[in-house]
Amino acid sequence: MEKEKVETAKLETDQQERMFTQSEVNELIKKRLERVKEKNVDTEELDKIKLELELLKNENSTLKASQLRAKIAKEYRLPDQMVSRLQGTTEEELRADANMLSEMISTTGSVVLPLYNGSNSFEEPTKGLTVRKHKPRKY
Fold it and tell me: Quick one: angle between helices 91-108 and 22-75, nearest 10?
């Protein structure tokens, strides 16, 4: 008798489960695919935005470094041609290099830059490029 009750309960639950037609199943699948596509589009857009943000950060840091070099070169009254020659990553390093270059210019009146000859050593400074005599700017 208990077996009959269990089988009857199973039949009742099976009948209570809803049967879907093929068109209803197709509609459910279509809706699910649309949700997945929306997620993929959002993910792709997010990736593009992240990449653009990274590029802008790199450009910003490059511009800041260039601006800092120009500012320090102006403070030490270096010629515009010397701005790109300032070496260093921090402000202190750039200032030390600018100080050294300004001392070289003020003591000699002109600067002789060695040319790179392709080896591990530089040519003699007398065979290098002579930069015009430094004239202090008036502000």
Answer: 30
